[in-house]
Amino acid sequence: xxxxxxxxxxxxxxxxxxxxxxxxxxxxxxxxxxxxxxxxxxxxxxxxxxxxxxxxxxxxxxxxxxxxxxxxxxxxxxxxxxxxxxxxxxxxxxxxxxxxxxxxxxxxxxxxxxxxxxxxxxxxxxxxxxxxxxxxxxxxxxxxxxxxxxxxxxxxxxxxxxxxxxxxxxxxxxxx
Length: 176
What we know:
Layout: E1 13-19, E2 25-31, E3 48-56, E4 59-60, E5 64-68, E6 78-81, E7 92-97, E8 113-119, E9 125-133, E10 136-142, E11 148-156, E12 165-169
Antiparallel strand pairs: 1-2, 1-3, 3-4, 3-5, 6-7, 7-10, 8-9, 8-11, 9-10, 11-12
């Protein structure tokens, strides 16, 4: 539109400038048709905030920001940090994931949900929700009361899966 709100004539050339989160710049041109011009934008390999603006002749639009987000995560690994393998029902241990990334290596956004499936020796299954911070999902669990094998695996809502961590809890050496 011009300063009076009138549409510019069809075939007016519009230039577009885009700055991606990785600071790489791209540009494109199109001609107006019915007051609309557009260019295809392809995302980079880093997620984050980018900027775009349009120009007609020597006049430029305001910068508009946009968000490039990571894609679906790829399969990942989980690990356990266990201080004691005694089945005492008192101590806790930590299960945590590798950094969750998409196929381009982009870290998933903060707060992405990861479901940790916990299998106890008595055939019970419970699912505990973990959230990513810095791309890593972490949960804390209490040592089981009964001795036996404890297994944990994790999945995301989009189907990425982890390995299965197997822990063996033994009888405590002394009574409390």
